[in-house]
Amino acid sequence: MRVVLGISGASGAALGLSVARQLAGLDVETDLVISPAGRRTIALECGDGGFEKLRDCVARLHPAGDVGASIASGSVPVAGMIVAPCSMRSLAAIANGLDDNLLTRAAGVQLKERRRLILLTREAPLTLAHLRNMTSATELGSIILPPVPAYYLGPLSVQEITDQIAARAIDLLGLAPPLARSWGS
């Protein structure tokens, strides 16, 4: 089983790292593409070793500028894609079909192939442009999953919140039995 993970430049790089760790725990082959701003955010938010931890969890790392990479083609079978976090810039490009880098091209491929595309959109407050882009992306087939904590589970740490949100995103791909804790569990 193969999944594409995109990490864009929005705050919340730990979400992408958690998704990568949990997919590795499921023995899922992960293709990773990170925007230049995403690399910067990983360094700022996850420390000096953040990128190396991320790299250790994935099967393949693709340069964001390589629009000819395998994941840019619908002929390459993958189970879907998660963009965690998804910046408003990446959301806008995906919602409007601007396949101008590998992250947005790989997302566009998921949509055209009718595969799951999960976008952990990260911004607050939202402008009307953001909301319209979320609507457009949803109409195209994306699933918008803002990283909102499940407070009813009584999380005790930011890491627990992050892991729960990442698990919820993976669950939406339908790869395995649910990872995320559910209400009443």
TrEMBL record:
<keyword id="KW-0288">FMN</keyword>
<dbReference type="Pfam" id="PF02441">
    <property type="entry name" value="Flavoprotein"/>
</dbReference>
<feature type="binding site">
    <location>
        <position position="35"/>
    </location>
    <ligand>
        <name>FMN</name>
    </ligand>
</feature>
<comment type="similarity">
    <text>Belongs to the UbiX/PAD1 family.</text>
</comment>
<dbReference type="InterPro" id="IPR003382">
    <property type="entry name" value="Flavoprotein"/>
</dbReference>
<keyword id="KW-0637">Prenyltransferase</keyword>
<feature type="binding site">
    <location>
        <position position="122"/>
    </location>
    <ligand>
        <name>FMN</name>
    </ligand>
</feature>
<dbReference type="InterPro" id="IPR004507">
    <property type="entry name" value="UbiX-like"/>
</dbReference>
<feature type="binding site">
    <location>
        <begin position="9"/>
        <end position="11"/>
    </location>
    <ligand>
        <name>FMN</name>
    </ligand>
</feature>
<dbReference type="InterPro" id="IPR036551">
    <property type="entry name" value="Flavin_trans-like"/>
</dbReference>
<keyword id="KW-0285">Flavoprotein</keyword>
<comment type="function">
    <text>Flavin prenyltransferase that catalyzes the synthesis of the prenylated FMN cofactor (prenyl-FMN) for 4-hydroxy-3-polyprenylbenzoic acid decarboxylase UbiD. The prenyltransferase is metal-independent and links a dimethylallyl moiety from dimethylallyl monophosphate (DMAP) to the flavin N5 and C6 atoms of FMN.</text>
</comment>
<feature type="domain" description="Flavoprotein">
    <location>
        <begin position="1"/>
        <end position="171"/>
    </location>
</feature>
<feature type="binding site">
    <location>
        <position position="168"/>
    </location>
    <ligand>
        <name>dimethylallyl phosphate</name>
    </ligand>
</feature>
<feature type="binding site">
    <location>
        <position position="152"/>
    </location>
    <ligand>
        <name>dimethylallyl phosphate</name>
    </ligand>
</feature>
<keyword id="KW-0808">Transferase</keyword>
<protein>
    <recommendedName>
        <fullName>Flavin prenyltransferase UbiX</fullName>
        <ecNumber>2.5.1.129</ecNumber>
    </recommendedName>
</protein>
<feature type="binding site">
    <location>
        <begin position="87"/>
        <end position="90"/>
    </location>
    <ligand>
        <name>FMN</name>
    </ligand>
</feature>
